[in-house]
Each structure stands twice: as C-alpha cells, then as structure tokens.
Amino acid sequence: MSQVEIIAGLDIGTTKINCIVAEVNEHEEIKILGVGTSPSDGLRYGVVVDVDKTVHSIRTAVQQAEAMGNVEINTVFAGIAGDHIRSINGRGVVAISGENSEVSPDDVRRVIDAARAVALPIDREIIHILPQEFIVDEQRGIRDPVGMKGVRLEAEVHIVTGAIASAQNIHRCIEKAGYGVSDLVLEPLSSSFSVLTDDEKELGVILIDIGGGTSDLAMFYEGCIRHTSVVALGGRNVTHDIATVLRTPIDSAEYLKINHGSVFHTDNDKDIMVDVDGVGNRPNRKISKGLLIDVIAPRMAEILALAYEDVKSSDYFNFMATGLVLTGGASLLDGTVELAEKIFKMPAKLGIPTGFSGMIAEAGKPQCATGVGLVIYGYKYKSELGELSEGEEGIYHFIKERLRRWFGGIAGLF
Fold this sequence. Notes:
This protein is α/β, with parallel strands linked by helices. The chain is 37% helix and 29% strand.
C-alpha cells in the first residue's frame, strides 16, 4: 500500500445516499476527509426503481465528499441491502492434498468452493461467502487451518445471496455516475466494522441496522457472522404512517418524526402541542405530542418485534451474551433502544461508528455506520485484493468472476 491511500464507501439507501471518503496513512490510521449526503429518490426497499434519479443522487453525494475532502474519487466500496437478500449456511468437505498431509492454501480454496456449491435459482447470485470455522479431522473451532496436519478438511460458511438484477442495477448506476466499483458489500456486514468490537463479536451480539426502507440484521458469535436477514420495514414506514394519519406532506412528517417523535409516552405528552402542516392549500393545525407518539410507537414496535421473531429462530440466539446494538438513522428515534431492550429482553445500546479520526462530528453518527464501515472494510481488504490480482486467487478472483457473470455471460438475460 502506498504511503497515503484514498478509500471511499458509498451507502446506497432507500432514503439517502451517503458517501464517506478517507485516507489511510503509512501508520494504518484512517482519517475521514469528506462526507457527502444526497436524498435517494430512485430506490424502494433498497432496490433501484429509477436509474436516472439514482445516478444523480450518487453523483451528488460523491461530489460533495470530493469537494469537502479536496480529493478525487475513482472507485467505491458500495453497500447492498434490500428485501431481496437471502442467506444460508453451507458446509464443504475435501481431502487434504498438501505435502506431508499439511493443509495448504489450495486446500482452503477447494473446501470453500465445495461449501459454496449450493443450488441457486437462475436469478440469484452469491454476494458473500463468510467462513465461520474450519474442521480438521473432527477438531472444530479452527479459524486458520493452513499448516495443520490431517487427512480431512471441512468448512462451515455463511452464504449471502441476492437478486442478480438488483446487484446489476446498483453496479450500473454507480458506473453511469462515473465511478468504478471495488466491491459490493452487505450493509449490516459493513456496519459491523464500524460499530461492533471484537469482544462483542466473540461473545455474541445482534446488530440491527434500521434504515429508511429496510432493517438489516446480523448475528455474530465466536468472532464470525452466524445469521443475516432483512425486515422489509424501516424509518420510511414510520414517516408514511405519520403523513397518512395526520394528513401532512412527507417532508413535514419526517420533520415531526425527527424533532418531536418518540416511542414512549410521558405524563405531559397531551399538554405539548406541535404544528402540523396541511396538504395542498389546507390550513395548518396543532396536535398533541401524545397523538404523534400513538402513530409512531406501533410501527417501531412492529419493526423490532419482526426482528426479534427472526433472530429468535436462530440456533445462536441463546449465545448472544453482549446483547443488541442498534444503528441506522431510525435508531435515533427517542426511546428506540429502551423499546428494543423490552422486546428482546436483553441489553441494548446505540451503535456509534468508531475507528477513525478526522470528521468525527460529521461521520460519527448511526446513520453513517454503513458508510464508515465500508471504508474500514475497504482498507482491510483492498491490499489483499491487490496482492491476489496477479495470481487470480482467493477473494479477488471470486469478485472478478462474480462481476464477469453479472455483466458477461448472463447479460443477455436482462
């Protein structure tokens, strides 16, 4: 890696597009240089529905980050989410073929390839293969088996899949905006790099990223990801509820949610009055804060209850020793952490991005967790991609092959 390297993360969300650009110096320190944010009008539930609007939003966010940081961005690590994301656990087994019965890097590659050999519909593609553990001759809990002796190597992996068309459209929007794509990264995985500690991942933690269109879930135990899923509800649903029930424009509903919203009542809610804009030429009026809470609370409870029902079905739910971490813009709604503790019956906290210097006030917010996480992910893996490029091995080869299939062999299907 050069003395100073520029890395950009692009969080393509349903309500906003957030770009974070940072530099990594020779001391491996990450410094945020610029933050750009643009309203996202071309996506619904994390899926592109209007290419031109999405391209414009991407270009606006990236250009803001470039101007703030006085740098040029050529490629980005982009987040991918949406209710099209599905995940399964896989298992592969191979005979150890290394010299003197030692596990070689080639054995690891072969067992990962064996684990990813799952039947997928023609319209779906693997986004991530995340190793959970390796097993050498029934010895479990191995994270790096290279050099160990044995005759049988097994791998347990977490496989994240997505709709090919959705991934294609995100990639094409970024390219039409004038930027390259280093990789597409599952958004809750990205957020975990910025808001979770190694101890939390080791002891067991649930991450819920409550975004605008969806809420993304991830469970970690013994240092690796064990379960991922998506709840197709987010902060935008709360805003629409307010707009519908109170008959107010979307922008006004968002303002009410952010500035006066809560999920719990207090004794004086009925005495606090807030202004509500009318739609069209209808007059403005006042309502009690208690009525606003009556609209917000059921939807937030539904989002968290659906998340609870999802993770409760996982075999790892009882191992979540450190509890729950909430991040994403909607997690800032007053009382959300307390409501999560009540529903999940475990400790919860707000996930604040860390691990960087520079623009802490601008980037150190839950709504920037994915963007910052993408930068950290990019730093951790970009050097590996560069090192592996010549040999066409490992993760670089997998990414290259994935993009080739998206835009090569299957291009005629879309």
